[in-house]
Design goal:
The protein has about 140 residues and is mainly alpha-helical. It has one domain: Glycoprotein, Type 4 Pilin (2-Layer Sandwich). Helices cover about 40% and strands about 5% of the residues. It contains 2 helices and 3 strands. Strand 1 and strand 2 form a beta hairpin. The chain is elongated. The termini are far apart. The relative contact order is 0.12. The model has no long low-confidence stretch (mean pLDDT about 85).
Length: about 140
């Protein structure tokens, strides 16, 4: 054996120890990132629903009634002869890829909500813009 020889590589134990530390850190950080992403999707859906409500109020101001469906917001012919631009270019899908639910309420405000990540109506993860709308 040579006494002056230096080690020029990592041992298997050192490599495994580093991998375990990286795994533990990833296990602690990943759930927080998913929670942040889920909340961002909910916030995006609430913002979009508020935009729909604002467009519906403008539609009512111009026509005297709320639209029967969200698609009427993209049709400028429903707003009178002087209006050439639609209130919305298109109706987007919710952050989970489903269409928003729009329920026309004769004599009242429409009910607009997202089915949420499970895409099932009337479950706890449905997204409404406000708590008042949730309680309907």
């Amino acid at each position: 054996m040579q006494e002056g020889r230096r080690r020029s590589a990592f041992t298997l134990l050192e490599v495994l120890l580093v991998l375990v530390i990286i795994g533990l850190l990833a296990g602690l950080v990943a759930p927080r990132l998913f929670t942040i992403r889920d909340q961002a999707n909910v916030d995006a859906a609430k913002g979009q629903i508020n935009l729909f409500y604002n467009s519906c109020v403008l539609f009512k101001f111009k026509t005297g009634d709320y639209p029967k469906s969200l698609n009427e917001l993209t049709d400028p012919s429903r707003l009178g002869e002087k209006v050439t631009e639609p209130l919305m270019d298109k109706i987007p899908l919710d952050p989970w890829g489903s269409p928003y639910v729009y329920e026309y309420q004769p004599g009242g405000k429409p009910l607009i909500y997202s089915l949420g990540p499970d895409k099932t109506p009337n479950t706890d993860d449905d997204v409404h813009a406000t708590e008042e709308q949730e309680q309907r």
